[in-house]
Inverse folding.
């Protein structure tokens, strides 16, 4: 059994294949966190490892005389508020009398087969063979708030999930002003925080900092998980690297405002709290009502960051992504955006598609500019009818012509947004977020629809479902090109406006659930100005997301490198674009652009007609190569062989088949040198007893020799040269 509970001692222990997690409910009902790390032995009880000391200005709970016992110094599983713990709180509660205290005490635990579900929210899933559920009930006897801690224990995957259910069992209303999803108190040790910051076009830049004796906060207040901070963080031992050392990940399955907080306490313990951001958040619970906080995915590795990443990759692929496409090869696509922007008609699109098909492309995607009176990015959003005057034909006619080439057809949409000049806005101006009496702010000349209103969600469902029912569309690129401002719902009273941002996410999730359920064969790709909503919540509905609007392959090395710490390569949309690059002006070889893009869901975003005959042959070969790589992307292992955040000479990474029969090493030289240092790399996770042929030199040697002695490459000269090396098992 993955979960053990001893009612007589209050000891609870969770086990995965390589880890253990232990808690203890003491005699007064305080739930202590004791341990999360490498597997414990059967019957191990770590209560004796706790440290108690009389710390000045750390008070005692009512009725406790022992001055060594304080909520301010005990490592807790989930905190109350206002009763003596001055560290980061999990909960902020406002009682009917105005008081803001909650004293949570253990009231029972229940072990269930299978995985809990979270109504209305994305969450991991599994069968009774995959996991068990632990439900721990905490109660505040005065406010009569019941807090249910939910744990999903995926033994084989080495993942423990957390979520929280809040229920008001009182006779009057209770208001949550903070409702975190999980708390983790690590009693001992020093930790580095690895997080992934950035901006539009430079998302998920890895940063590693030692945790100070202070509060460190990662958050988004943008209504989306954001380009700026990803809802995923790692605590790593100072000596932890790719192949060794302790590291622990926390990933939110949520796409909106979030907060991950870390605090090193006066006693040297480290607390991590993750969940919905409490900024501008509140949720009122009437008697009998409940609120569910989103899920957090915890995973631990004692063998380095590479194994931690692999655990997350496999878990997201197997237990979060629902799409029928999650294990299926994705079609190679051609997106017209950087080829034409909004300057196109049907004939121009057809010529581009025809050339793409001749070179082996399987899917043509029509991007922004096809609908309403859309001629630029300043208007037209909300009117999702084909602009026949611009296109010169109907949408079914265009799709028929594309299908006649032997290609699938895909379409770009941005349903969450509306333009002030649209027919939709003229009919329903109140559907857009705006504060009464104030002119709303705009982003990209557009407003945001209030998806917290069921009628708005119903309208968008009708529009999108009709579009998919009336047209043979195989792929949808779902974009979101601005963040939320003026968040005010006209259907909520003044006292509940703090609910509006979360209700927006609930409405979005409901819409995505309806559409992906009704159209399971459509390949949906998420996008939010590129990587502004690249998170596990969106992956629950969409098996892939556009990684970044920056298609410069040299920038993409760092973007995809940072993304890979938590998210699988098959989830990263990555395209070959024109050179010089439209975002940076940088020129790079076609081969380099393709090698970088092949580490995600592959496609092209340029007019292939403009290529030379030699380059067109390269494209044919690239597509053939990518098709052979797809099993590695979907089911294999991804390893970072260099640190793209700090290494300036070259960047290298590896894809390895699950059965270790094949590995592909990709390498890009960033700074070719005169009188160069050798380019030396050590592959990883090959079968040490097997023998492999190196496609670069033809040499055959053992997996042990390759992993320990490595490969030395000849000098690579020129402008950002790249090489792709295949290692094939020969015996």
């Amino acid at each position: 059994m993955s979960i053990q509970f001893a009612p007589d001692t209050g000891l609870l222990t969770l086990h995965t294949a390589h880890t253990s997690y232990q808690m203890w409910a003491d005699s007064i009902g305080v739930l202590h966190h004791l341990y999360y790390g490498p597997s414990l032995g059967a019957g191990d009880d770590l209560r004796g490892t706790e440290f108690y000391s009389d710390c000045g200005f750390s008070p005692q709970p009512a009725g406790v005389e022992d001055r060594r016992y304080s909520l301010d110094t005990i490592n807790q599983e989930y905190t109350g508020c206002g009763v003596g713990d001055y560290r980061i709180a999990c909960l902020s509660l406002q009682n009917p009398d105005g008081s803001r205290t909650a004293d949570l005490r253990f009231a029972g635990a229940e072990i269930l087969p299978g995985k809990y579900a979270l109504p209305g929210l994305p969450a991991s899933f599994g069968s009774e063979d995959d996991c068990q559920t632990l439900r721990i009930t905490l109660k505040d006897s005065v406010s009569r708030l019941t807090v249910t801690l939910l744990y999903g224990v995926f033994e084989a995957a080495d993942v423990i999930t957390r979520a929280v259910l809040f229920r008001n069992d009182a006779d009057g209303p209770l208001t949550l002003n903070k409702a975190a999803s999980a708390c983790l108190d690590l009693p001992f040790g020093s930790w580095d925080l690895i997080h992934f910051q950035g901006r539009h076009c430079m998302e998920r830049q890895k940063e590693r900092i030692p945790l100070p004796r202070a509060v460190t906060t990662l958050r988004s207040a943008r209504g989306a998980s954001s380009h700026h901070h990803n809802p995923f963080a790692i605590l790593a031992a100072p000596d932890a690297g790719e192949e060794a050392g302790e590291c622990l990940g926390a990933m939110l399955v949520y796409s909106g405002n979030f907060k991950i907080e870390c605090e090193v306490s006066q006693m040297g313990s480290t607390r991590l709290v993750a969940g919905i951001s409490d900024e501008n958040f509140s949720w009122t619970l009437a008697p009998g009502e409940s609120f569910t906080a989103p899920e957090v995915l915890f995973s631990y590795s004692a063998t380095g960051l590479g194994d931690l990443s692999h655990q997350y990759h496999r878990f997201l692929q197997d237990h979060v992504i629902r799409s029928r496409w999650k294990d299926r090869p994705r079609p190679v696509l051609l997106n017209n955006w950087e080829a034409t922007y909004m300057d196109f008609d049907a004939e121009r699109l057809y010529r581009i598609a025809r050339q793409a098909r001749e070179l082996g492309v399987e899917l043509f995607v029509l991007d922004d500019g096809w609908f309403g009176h859309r001629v630029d990015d300043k208007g037209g959003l909300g009117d999702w009818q084909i602009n026949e005057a611009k296109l010169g034909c109907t949408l079914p006619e265009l799709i028929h012509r594309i299908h006649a080439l032997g290609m699938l057809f895909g379409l770009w949409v941005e349903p969450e947004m509306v333009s002030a000049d649209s027919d939709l806005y003229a009919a329903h101006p109140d559907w857009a977020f705006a504060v009464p009496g104030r002119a709303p702010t705009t982003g990209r000349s557009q407003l945001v629809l209030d998806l917290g209103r069921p009628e708005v969600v119903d309208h968008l469902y009708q529009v999108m479902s009709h579009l998919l029912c009336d047209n043979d569309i195989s792929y949808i690129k779902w974009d979101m090109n601005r963040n939320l401002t003026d968040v005010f719902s006209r259907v909520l009273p003044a006292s509940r406006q703090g609910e509006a941002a979360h209700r927006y996410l609930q409405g979005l999730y409901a819409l995505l659930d309806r559409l992906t359920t009704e159209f399971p064969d459509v390949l949906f790709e998420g996008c939010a100005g590129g990587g502004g909503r690249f998170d596990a919540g969106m992956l629950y509905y969409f098996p892939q997301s556009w990684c970044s609007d920056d298609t410069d392959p040299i920038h993409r090395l760092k973007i995809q490198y940072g993304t890979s710490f938590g998210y699988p390569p098959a989830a990263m949309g990555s395209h070959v674009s024109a050179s010089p690059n439209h975002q940076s002006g940088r020129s790079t070889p076609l081969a380099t652009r393709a090698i970088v893009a092949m580490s995600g869901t592959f496609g092209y975003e340029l007019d292939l007609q403009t290529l030379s005959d030699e380059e067109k042959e390269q494209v044919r070969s690239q597509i053939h190569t990518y098709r052979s790589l797809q099993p590695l992307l979907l089911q294999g292992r991804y390893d970072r062989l260099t640190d793209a955040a700090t290494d300036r000479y070259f960047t290298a990474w590896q894809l390895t088949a699950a059965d270790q029969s094949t590995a592909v090493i990709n390498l890009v030289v960033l700074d070719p040198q005169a009188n160069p240092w050798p380019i030396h790399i050590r592959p990883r996770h090959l079968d040490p007893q097997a023998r492999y042929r190196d496609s670069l030199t033809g040499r055959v040697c053992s997996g042990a020799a390759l992993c320990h002695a490595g490969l030395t490459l000849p000098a690579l000269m020129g402008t950002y040269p790249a090489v792709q090396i295949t290692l094939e098992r020969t015996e």
Notes: The chain has a mean pLDDT of 97. The radius of gyration is 27 Å. The chain is about 20% helix and 30% strand. The first strand starts at residue 3 and ends at 6.
